[in-house]
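Record now logged for everyone:
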Amino acid sequence: MILHWLSTAWRSLVSNPLFSAITIASLSIGCCGALLAGSNIRQHLAFERWIPDAERVLLVRPHFQTAANANPRAANIWLYAENGAVETVPGFLDQTRVGEDRLTLPSEPGQDGEQIRGLRIERNFFDFFGLTFIEGSAGNDGVVLSESLAHKLYGAPPWIDKLFATGVSANSTIGMRTKVGAVIRDMPATSQIHSDFFSYHRPDVMARNATNWHADWVGGHYVRVKPGVKVTDFQAAMAIALDQGAARAYPNGTEEDDDGVPAGAQIRYSSLPLPDVHLAGFETSGVNSSAEAGMLVAMASAALALLAVSAFNYVTLSLARSMRRRPEVAMRKVLGAGGGAVMRHYLVESFVITALSLALGFALAELLHPWFARSIGQPEELISLYDPVFVGGALAGGVLLALVVGAYPAIYLAHIRPRQALEQTGMSAPGPVTRVVSGGLLGLQIVGATVLLAVALIMAAQAQYVASRPLGYDMSHTLAVGIVCPPPPQPKPPPGTPEQAGAALPASACDLPLVERIKAMPGVASVTRGGTDDLFADTLGSASVTRPGQSAHLGETHRVAVETDFLQTMDARLLAGRLFDSSSAYDRQLLSQRIGFDTAQADTVPVVVTRAFLPMVGVLDPQEAIGQQFAMPAYARGVRAFEVVGVVEDWHRRTLRHAIDPIVFTPGGWTMQIIVKTTPEAQLTVRNAIRDINPPGRPPAPGTPFIRKLVMLDDDFTSSFREDQRLMAAVAGFAAFAMGVAALGVFALSAFEIRRRVREIGIRKALGAGPAKMAGMVLGQSLLSAAIASLLAWPIAWWAAGAWLSSFVYRTELAPALLPVASLFVITFVALAVSFNAARAAAVRPNIALRTTG
């Protein structure tokens, strides 16, 4: 019976090529969009699920809270707590620590070396996460490589004891020449700990850190809970134990400003189950992620809207076609077929069309997934169409889709009365219910297309607003050169002795020859130095602000060490007072005092602040801020007061989704980056010349700095806005597909309508109606329906766009004029789709039309 239904359904599709082509094409477009978006979302939801018992692994991190700032401010830094505090918590099983690292592989002359990601780990790391060794073991010395990196560097195995020669290490935690100790099987791409190489923490570093339970440099601390223990109970008990440990270690709050901890801050701890880390967001997890919940929701909504438009199109066309199939159904019933058999027969036809559409949609998704990945800024590995779980979900979704789109047409045909259907001599007119359903579904297609297009246009307006909004400075044609100064020769401290603060040479002691060399390069307009690594960091390394000699907390500010000509070079807009002056001996001598180190001693240090800083010193007028004094005790304990000598316009250091941070510019301080302004045409040439000073794989000369990072500031900064631009592109693409699907539906429906009304058209023309009037009748009806449906889409589009814009602190105004523009585009597409059929109606010859029976 099923084979008979399948063969009948296939013959029906072959005998109606126009219906088959349009329905399969439109439904496959919807399936393609759903498959692309769904596979990407599935991969984001699968992060860390490959780890055994991942729900029982917790990422623990600190939060810092002050009396004036009741909301915890998360920072991904050292965990201040007594060693072993977590081990006393009932249910504790194991723990491990990791830290991030990046290396540059050797490259050909004139080429950038490839950056690879690594982790600094403890010996139990591989057992903790259940990783598999291909060669070697965790007990071997040397670096541990992933299988893919080992193949890339050395070809076929064996790999053990091969020389691992790399370029510059961003954190300089392993040497540039070491041996391969082991190779592990590649971790899945759906992992926050996915890395190319792994190096063990140095024993001397671990010994010095024995009293602090922390992640060395930037990284994480992971804890595994025993089976049978309720994870939420363990989290609560662990938070209490760690908070008590922090209170014992720092009863009066933190005393030092290590890695941005404000003095006096109280430490609290939070934890997240491993599968939740990827989607939690940086502020919650402290882990940079390629996922953003808002983007995933927007992408899923757009894909579902496109699929809905395609499904509505199928139902609408099926109802239109059912007008011609009434006699066929009547004959089936006369010959003994019941309503259930008729319904099952046409549901099988729906399954055939859906299966063909799903297969074609899968092929389109396979073809388009590289473009889609680039459009949304995701690695291709995060769009996996062959993931078994996703394939199973797609097949189940296909079955559900076939039932949804086929149910109403099948029910309609199953309830046809044979006598009435056989008495009709032509193509029957739809009943009132059918007209309402058909018209409503067609209207929903146009609503969906209008909403998607309107949201895409508003996203484009926000992108334009972001691109044109003044940032407070000019970073065009600007390079940031990150350097590392070698430490001076000194005796190795005994084991357990803390490292001396500021043991590395300041930038001014080692990079001046490099600065002079860069200045002499053709195309260089100016060279300065500044803490841009801090300025554009994801986390805000803030300093607590007080009045000199007082302890009352006024707020927290971001401090940036700069050269005396940095602000002029970056074209900062001065609002009041003065900037630092390179010709001033007083300003110049502050550079050598290394503000921010314990060794810095000064009564008063001049600073330049941004407008957002002014409320902290109780003024709003920039002119009134000049001469105001404040203290940052944790940042520079040897400085009695900082005095405001200048106020500049606010600086946007992060995306417009974040509020502007108050910034204090100090003359000198921590090691700064070299900032290079070039002429527009020389930017790439200068970049290549600087890169060739310290090519990857070549150690620097003794006593000279090596270049660890070289970025174009405008590219590096604007990349933070690209996610929104990519989302806009994805929504615009879905909108274009939706308009195409809606246009196909309107075209097919108008063709069915003209065929049904061909005798009416013949009579009208016989009575004197001209071709223009006939074409206008067909076009007018379609355009009126499209205009009404598009108008109904405006409130939905307005709400959706407003919800998306609400995630921005600084955003463009919602422009009502964009809604009519979206409607005009959609109505134009409808007009183009119907115009061909309107021309056919105008060309009908009355003598032929009047002989037509349906």
